[in-house]
Fold this protein.
Amino acid sequence: MSGVNIIGPSVPNMPWQDRPDTPQAGPLWRYSGNPVVGRNPAPGVARIFNSAVLPVNGKFAGVFRGEQTDGVPHIYWGESADGLKWDIANERIPFVNDKGEPFLPRYAYDPRFIKVEDTYYAIWCQDFYGASIGMAKTTDFRTFTRLENPFIPYNRNAVLFPRKVNGNFLMLSRPSDSGHTPFGDIFISESPDLVYWGKHRHVMGRGHAWWESVKIGGGAAPIETTEGWLMFYHGVSGTCNGFVYSIGGAILDIGNPSIVKYRCSRFLLTPEEWYEERGFVPNVVFPCATIHDAATGRIAVYYGAADSYVGLAFGKLDEIAAYIKEHSRLTDEDTEIGMR
Amino acid sequence: MSGVNIIGPSVPNMPWQDRPDTPQAGPLWRYSGNPVVGRNPAPGVARIFNSAVLPVNGKFAGVFRGEQTDGVPHIYWGESADGLKWDIANERIPFVNDKGEPFLPRYAYDPRFIKVEDTYYAIWCQDFYGASIGMAKTTDFRTFTRLENPFIPYNRNAVLFPRKVNGNFLMLSRPSDSGHTPFGDIFISESPDLVYWGKHRHVMGRGHAWWESVKIGGGAAPIETTEGWLMFYHGVSGTCNGFVYSIGGAILDIGNPSIVKYRCSRFLLTPEEWYEERGFVPNVVFPCATIHDAATGRIAVYYGAADSYVGLAFGKLDEIAAYIKEHSRLTDEDTEIGMR
């Protein structure tokens, strides 16, 4: 170990494969069995992608973006013994309100799944008279109770931190417009109670580097490390044939995550394989979750591929942190508190 | 009186002029001395418009959008003995942070000015790494202390209610995009402390009627009446030569203002006069404040005209409420709680 460690539980049965001998652009490499979720994975669901998982009761489980065959996305529950082969439920998650009554979003996509203390939170993007963030909590994985929508539209890519900081919940999000949004920075917000949110700060903007020059957005829940919060996010570049989504990496200050300590000027993963370059939205790798093991520093990144598949990549914390630090390039907007 | 009354203080010295004999499109008529603030009203300030005033210590005072001669808008203090002739300060309001240190927005525009309990609040749109809402409080009209920005970008047209409802502050706002925003609905948010905001609800969307079919946005602070909250707002239609801004009227439920009781399908005022049709942005009437008298039901509406002037219009609550009710047309989105 290079002296940087994951702060968190050990997950000895996490999925893993050693780095192959083939050349890699950065510190991540792909699982040889990708994609881990293929086409038509459940009745009436054409594609699953942009989905988030966690260790649950010695196995793995999570929330999956299922694009129904009517074109509307909803959230499906999935379970796996090994984090590689996934059983996706045949029905969407039956979200309820705080009275236990059915309260489904009209559509829901790009879920994240985060455990804070003893509760599991699903967060997604939905219609709130415009695209905005929805969220729900569960402790038994049967009842998912919706919480107040944290923000007014338009917003996407919300990510909850896995623990409170200075007594408050923390959430990353990415203000958007009502369409495909040709801009976008990452903000952070605080909440004492998951009802009211405030103390909003700017974390970081679209980057210098071309691969993240159009917009960025939060990806996996930040991983607590001895160097700070390791954040896998997505960065977007524009081409004559549309957007290209890559995976980027940054390390945020542990006590004040609106301050970026290191930000990698090079992508960590970019579309290369057939399942990333071909699909409903070609050229997308879109990280939504990690499973990681404090004992070994191993990290498995789950990412959506081409809005059609779920992919899996691996890396080791010490190598990822060293790569981010070696290629770090910061702006004033990255290092400031982010209050205007 | 028709049985509808303003709930609030009496302001016997409010500006007033009786309705003229000339034809009027709706229940408002213009002050014959308009515009009440003309061009080059202070050194280095080319135009003042979209500004908000209140009764203060037996006179009138408020916050004015001053477009500097470098093209950057900032907020200026203004005072008046009669609400008609205004003295605009030569320097911008020196906003400070909670330590008393200078903390000016990089730009600030379209201020509102609202008294809640014993404190006066200025709210405006500013750069928060994107257009969003800024706010400050004052009790002595010398020290204006900035509060937390209530929302992440992009947002405009924030309006605070003049009293707490169910123990919380209430704020209207209008989510936007990063440009001229060809869409926009009015939302409402709650805060126990002006730091954290939540329980967001949709109030009403752009309207059926052509004059408000592109977008709408909060205008003057709602007036508490025995029928509900009387809200003057702006509605926008699109033409081949740009947007046209009119003044609309609605009445919101007193205990749950996310519910619209009446919404006038006809504008209350639309650009007609030279100072509304000519200017930096032609064809704009943009309400930001009212002064009103509970004893008589008289209402004076202050509005920005053509992004160049401040105009003043008058009306009587009973006539305005009757007009709104007579021409009310509601949608499901208007009458529902506004939670998805």
